[in-house]
Design goal:
The protein has 712 residues and is an alpha+beta fold. The chain has 20 helices and 25 strands. The strands form five sheets. It has a six-stranded antiparallel β-sheet with strand order 3-2-1-6-5-4. It has a six-stranded antiparallel β-sheet with strand order 8-7-12-11-10-9. Helix 2 runs antiparallel to helix 6 (149-195), helix 10 packs parallel to helix 14 and helix 14 runs antiparallel to helix 15 (520-548). It is flat and about 120 Å long.
Length: 712
């Protein structure tokens, strides 16, 4: 089916096809003589005034070869898709044959008719080696033409030959790109070796030194212009005890002999007698045929002073980052400080979402200039990846060399990040790990317990800060509770009590002949204030009992979907009287573990609030869904709304927002406090946001674990 003229066909913008087209490198100003010969043959053999090899991109067509195009277009070698019949060949993935485009309502508006002079058109798909349709090989005439079977067979053959030519061009480009990549990798390797803090030295199969990087020269203070062999000859290598190495004891010599040298400590003494205690790793360089091409050694400075300096810098940086902010706000500065001080390329801090038992990234940092091919995932499951494994086991994981077995990291993750080493330590809570701090180095690192201890100490700092922040929150809540109870005595309890006292005095002053009818208004006021007082006391006692655990909940499997439907059904009459539309969407069943009575109380309170604060003619939408082991109830209304700065405050006892106070809607300010308490007792969360459609109102989102919670 051909797309309507003027719109871009779906097949043209197919991402796989577009990626295949751009990977060919054919969209350029380069001339392709082989394709030019084919278009020349086509114009002579058909004959036809116009022949094209067209490559169709998402917004224009490019001509890898063309004959017969009018000027402007011939020089530009491209046109917009408004001038293209070839786009429909791509979309249909089959030939498009047009005898007279002007006479066909499907084609008559195409600008190729007036501006390119194309009246008749015959185009065949031009396919890449992988089968994707890149464009078309086509012929066109400036007058109506009935293309006969011979013409069409000829064009089909030419399209096949053009595809072979494209494949040849593509292979040549790939070979050139591989050579370019090899040169670039060689230059990158040279630059990388010179940028490393670790010293690197390599020899050929005969033991002749052929490479020595800048770090090793600086470590031993040899002359920058010296050859590798001259540089090595200018410093002395000793055992840590001070005795000299025999020639066959040196790491490179042992590696050439087939030994994989690890953690070989020795002392380097440079021309200026400067000493450095270093640790070397060495191994043979094996060619693709298994032959030994040489050996390479990596030399790391492991002196105590450098180790102490790195430890001090990281600890001070983390302390400074946390001095002026809460842990979560300080997290980006923490990971940046730790990775920067340790000279590692990447760090991530993950904290657990206790509701769905998943890790979520709080902060990440990557060294400027270090390109990572994949992004940090939004969540990690328990036991998956480095962060998930550390969080699950509660133990550090150190992988000094990811070129071997990278588990628990996948080889794809290692390749995408170009990582050489990894370290992860748990962030502990009061009872169990609550997250993980993980770090990655761009190249393998020595196995150094000091670094593990240091990063574990930083993770403990984060844990202490989180617990201290939580304690500070509790202190603030206690302080607020004092104010709240003062407000309770001063308003929520005193006001109705004052009214009751005054009414009682009035009733006491009546004479014996006063009838009940004569004091009916006083009796009604007394009943109203007593009811208000009873509601406040009942809600307070309920909150206190739930908070203290004095009122245990009987829990079990509860069909949350049924509770939602029943709750909404119970208020339909009220909603109809207020001219408020109710919209409800729930699955047939959604089981959670909890108290049916308390969950019904929670749902009733949220739905009742939505109705109470919605204006007449509004609507209340209730939607229940489940995903990833979490049930999510979303209630959206068209109420008066809540200021963003008050959304957390409304869960405080006796707090009533300014909009509610101005609207004179009665209430105690305890409903949402009860909602949060019930939600938290079910290990869930409750939040208030603005409706996603931008309309006035409030969206209440309640998230609860679906099914029974798994024991840790």
């Amino acid at each position: 089916m051909v797309a309507e003229t003027g719109s871009i066909p779906a097949g043209v913008i197919d991402p796989r096809r577009v990626a295949a087209l751009r990977a060919t490198g054919l969209i350029c100003d380069q001339v392709f003589p082989g394709l030019d010969r084919l278009t020349g043959i086509a114009t002579r053999m058909l004959p036809a005034p116009i022949a094209l090899v067209s490559l169709v991109d998402t917004d224009r067509q490019w001509f890898a070869s063309h004959l017969g195009l009018p000027e402007r277009w011939a020089t530009a070698r491209q046109t917009p898709l408004t001038h293209s019949f070839c786009q429909y060949v791509v979309d249909a993935q089959q030939p498009v044959i047009i005898a007279d485009a002007r006479a066909d309502p499907l084609w008559c508006t195409n600008l190729a008719i007036p501006e390119l002079g194309v009246i008749a058109y015959a185009g065949y798909p031009l396919r890449a080696p992988g089968g994707e349709v890149l464009g078309s090989f086509c012929a066109a005439d400036t007058r109506p033409r009935r293309w006969d079977a011979r013409d069409l067979r000829f064009l089909a053959d030419m399209a096949a030959v053009a595809a072979d030519e494209v494949a040849t061009v593509l292979r040549a480009g790939q070979l050139a790109e591989k050579q370019h990549d090899a040169d670039r990798q060689r230059a990158f390797l040279d630059a990388l070796l010179d940028s490393l803090d670790a010293g690197v030295v390599a020899c050929d199969p005969s033991g002749r030194i052929v490479l020595m990087n800048r770090a090793l020269r600086q470590m031993t203070d040899v002359a920058p212009g010296s050859s590798p062999e001259e540089s090595v000859a200018r410093f002395i290598v000793l055992h840590p005890s001070g005795s000299a190495f025999a020639p066959d004891e040196l790491p490179l010599a042992r590696a050439l002999a087939g030994e994989r040298v690890r953690d070989d400590d020795h002392l380097l003494i440079g021309p200026d007698q400067r000493r450095a205690t270093v640790r070397a790793h060495a191994q043979a360089i094996i060619g693709p045929r298994g032959d030994v091409l040489g050996a390479v050694a990596a030399v790391h400075d492991v002196t105590e002073r450098r180790r102490a300096d790195r430890f001090r810098d990281a600890a001070l940086a983390v302390h400074d980052a946390c001095a002026t902010a809460a842990p979560v706000e300080a997290a980006p500065a923490i990971v940046r400080a730790v990775a920067g001080a340790l000279e590692w390329a990447h760090a991530e801090l993950w904290l657990a979402d206790q509701l769905d038992d998943l890790l979520r990234p709080v902060a990440t940092w990557t060294e400027p200039g270090h390109r990572v091919d994949d992004s940090v995932p939004p969540v990690i499951e328990r036991g998956h990846g480095l962060a998930g494994a550390v969080w699950h086991t509660g133990r550090p994981v150190c992988i000094p060399d990811l070129t071997g077995n990278p588990a628990p990291l996948s080889p794809e993750t290692v390749a995408a990040g170009r990582w050489g080493a990894a370290l992860g330590v748990p962030v502990h809570g009061s009872e169990h790990p609550i997250g993980a701090l993980v770090m990655f180095a761009a190249h393998p690192q020595p196995t150094d317990p000091t670094i593990i201890t240091m990063v574990a100490g930083i993770a403990n700092q984060i844990s202490e800060l989180l617990q201290r922040h939580r304690a500070d929150d509790l202190d603030r809540q206690l302080a607020r509770s004092k104010d709240e109870y003062l407000a309770l005595v001063g308003h929520s309890l005193r006001t109705p009590l004052t009214s009751i006292t005054a009414i009682t005095d009035l009733l006491a002053d009546t004479d014996g002949v006063t009838t009940l009818a004569q004091v009916a208004d006083l009796h009604e006021a007394l009943r109203r204030n007593t009811t208000k007082l009873q509601v406040v006391v009942d809600d307070l006692l309920d909150l206190a009992a739930l908070d203290s655990g004095y009122l245990p909940m009987a829990t079990g499997p509860v069909d949350l979907a049924a509770l939602v439907r029943d709750s909404v059904a119970a208020v339909r009459t009220t909603a109809a009287a207020q001219r408020i539309a109710l919209h409800t969407a729930t699955p047939d069943h959604l089981v959670v573990d909890g108290s049916a009575a308390r969950l019904r109380q929670l749902i009733d309170a949220v739905v009742d609030n939505a109705l109470r604060y919605s204006r007449s003619g509004g609507r209340v939408t209730t939607a229940l869904t489940a995903s990833g082991g979490v049930a999510e109830l979303v209630v959206t209304d068209t109420r008066i709304g809540i200021d963003p700065g008050e959304r957390d405050e409304v869960f405080r006892r006796f707090f009533r927002s300014r909009q509610v106070q101005h609207s004179s809607i009665p209430g105690t300010g305890l409903g949402l406090a009860l909602c949060r308490t019930i939600t938290e007792l079910h290990h869930g969360t409750i939040t208030l946001t603005t409706p996603p459609d931008g309309h006035p109102g409030t969206t209440v989102t309640i998230r609860l674990p679906a099914g029974r919670r798994r024991k840790r």
